[in-house]
Amino acid sequence: MRYFQVSERQHVLLEEYKENLRKIVRHLEECSPTMLIVLITPPPIDEEGRQQYATSVYGEKAMTALERTNEVAGNYGQRCKKRRAGRKSF
């Protein structure tokens, strides 16, 4: 049986995420200054459901600590929501 392994590149550090958002928004604003840019925050995570699923698939080899949590997703969501004087600020 092959177990799923998370690639290190699947997780983007918060500061890198922040800088990526900044670059994306800046590029879009340069392409079209009148464009409406909508950033969507990460969705909530069903932590209990994810743990139950991992246990049902991997049994004892399931991770005891989830790799994604609402707390961590919330940090990324806050980066999307910050605004400054009607303009996106990260």
TrEMBL record:
Q: Which keywords, in A-to-Z order, does the entry hold?
A: Hydrolase
The Gene Ontology terms for molecular function here are: hydrolase activity
Record-linked InterPro entries:
Iah1-like, SGNH_hydro_sf
Q: Which PANTHER family match?
A: GDSL-LIKE LIPASE_ACYLHYDROLASE FAMILY PROTEIN, EXPRESSED, ISOAMYL ACETATE-HYDROLYZING ESTERASE 1
Protein name as catalogued: GDSL lipase/esterase, SGNH hydrolase superfamily
Q: What is the lineage of its organism?
A: Eukaryota, Viridiplantae, Streptophyta, Embryophyta, Tracheophyta
